[in-house]
Amino acid sequence: MGKVEKEKTPHEYALRDTEEPLQRSQQPPKRASNQARSLSYEQTYRCPACGSGDLSAIALMDVFGCDFCRHLFTANLNTQTLQLADEQRPRAWQWTGERWRTRQQSHASTPVLWTFTTGLTLTPVLLIALSNYIFPPLDGSNFPVVWSLLTLMSHSAISAWLLAEYYRWPWYVSSRIRWQRLREHLQEKWLVAESGQH
Questions:
Q1: CA 132, CA 150: separation in Å to the nearest integer?
Q2: pLDDT tens per residue across span 166-194
Q3: Which residue among 66, 67, 87, 125 is the one 20 to 30 A from 59 at the CA level?
Q4: Which of the 8 DSSP states describes residue 82?
Q5: Taking a C-beta distance cutoff of 8 angstroms, is the pair 68, 53 a contact?
Q6: Do strands 63-66 and 43-46 pair parallel, antiparallel, or not at all (unpaired)?
Q7: Inter-axis angle of helices 109-134 and 143-167, to 10 degrees?
Q8: In what order do the strands lie in the sheet with 72-76?
Q9: How many Å separate Cα 170 from the centre of its chain?
């Protein structure tokens, strides 16, 4: 003979109806899986700016925040786009349902930057090569080749840094944040060690 369930009072039904939404709101937002889904404030996503943190909605605000790089983003759920809200230069991403895709925005400074970095990389190397052609080195000397390679590598590194600062690639942003936190940690340890000596 099965158990007879005790009939619930109207007060118990009302209590259950208020507890269930409260329990659902206290649960952490679910991480968006690789399955195609739309952009929503109820889910978390990989941060498109740093590529390391989790992007989730901030309570009582229609913005997303990253727990790693601390950037704030405004979202347009109709167009499934996200825009960086706390930097002067606008940067935007489109949610494809599985990952972020950078929205290309035309800037007048982009051609100037690429022209400058190309010239910065190639001009010194060409000048060294031209001087070696006009004034040939002594026989058996590898100095011009070594000097050209060092110049190419150093100027390429400077150009790559300028491009990374301009485009703010996720690997570059996350590396900068990690380096800054490591430096702050080492400074704190040094200050503690200094105060312990006195």
A1: 15
A2: 888 888 888 888 898 898 889 888 888 88
A3: 87
A4: E
A5: yes
A6: unpaired
A7: 180
A8: 30-31, 43-46, 54-57, 63-66, 72-76, 81-84, 92-95, 100-102
A9: 4
